[in-house]
């Protein structure tokens, strides 16, 4: 196989980044999606628009502003420096933050649709049985929204794997630290190493196909949550 150590390191780093991003997205996106699905506040539309911004903004724009904000003169950069953490640009932690922001709508919107689809009847039934908020969520809402969670996890993971512009802007191209698979493909093309680029690119095509196959096979309700 014409793949070198840097290629395998990039693949492992990509899988690590996608896994951690998906976990964080589910933890962060679930309360946001639940609030958007249940609230009647006037803030629903502007917050929903903010969450959906990565769907329409070029990745380089998102990466640029994240780079500025996490840099030494940015708000978050000054905060992390005050906490003794240094700056997060060109680090794995910076990649993780950028990936969470960039893939947020791919998790929040399927979850929001799943919560909205279940209606209020199950929640009202749980309330009549004096179920607490946590019991209602884990015993009623979570099982009913399971297809939405599956869709959100698959899309969040796959979208992170395919990132390029955001990770390149924030993380640069440091082998073993911030060099993910999509950036490594770009490196191979730049140096005219098309065989290696074919192997990595072909692997991502196969991965994307399997992701979509899993998504369309996850059940009708899971499909309606996004696709």
UniProtKB/TrEMBL annotation:
The lineage of its organism: Bacteria, Pseudomonadati, Pseudomonadota, Gammaproteobacteria, Pseudomonadales. Pfam families: BPD_transp_1. GO terms for cellular component: plasma membrane. It is found in: Cell inner membrane; Cell membrane. Keywords: Cell inner membrane, Cell membrane, Membrane, Molybdenum, Transmembrane, Transmembrane helix, Transport. This is Molybdenum transport system permease. CDD domains: TM_PBP2. Part of the binding-protein-dependent transport system for molybdenum; probably responsible for the translocation of the substrate across the membrane. One of its GO terms (molecular function) is molybdate ion transmembrane transporter activity.
């Amino acid at each position: 196989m014409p793949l070198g150590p840097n290629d395998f390191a990039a693949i492992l780093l990509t899988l690590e980044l996608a896994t951690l991003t998906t976990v964080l997205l589910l933890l962060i996106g679930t309360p946001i999606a639940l609030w958007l699905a249940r609230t009647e506040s006037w803030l629903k539309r502007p917050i929903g628009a903010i969450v959906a911004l990565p769907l329409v903004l070029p990745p380089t724009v998102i990466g640029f502003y994240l780079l500025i904000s996490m840099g030494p003169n940015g708000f978050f950069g000054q905060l992390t420096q005050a906490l003794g953490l240094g700056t997060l640009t060109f680090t794995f932690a910076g990649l993780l933050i950028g990936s969470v922001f960039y893939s947020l709508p791919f998790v929040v919107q399927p979850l929001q649709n799943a919560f909205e689809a279940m209606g209020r009847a199950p929640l009202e039934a749980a309330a009549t049985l004096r179920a607490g908020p946590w019991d209602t969520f884990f015993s009623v809402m979570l099982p009913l929204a399971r297809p939405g969670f599956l869709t959100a996890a698959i899309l969040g993971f796959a979208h992170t794997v395919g990132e390029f512009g955001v990770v390149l802007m924030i993380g640069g191209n440091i082998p073993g630290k911030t060099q993910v698979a999509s950036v490594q493909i770009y490196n191979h093309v730049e140096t005219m190493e098309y065989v290696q680029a074919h192997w990595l690119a072909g692997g991502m095509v196969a991965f994307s196909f399997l992701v979509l196959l899993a998504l369309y096979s996850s059940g009708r309700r899971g499909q309606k949550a996004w696709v």
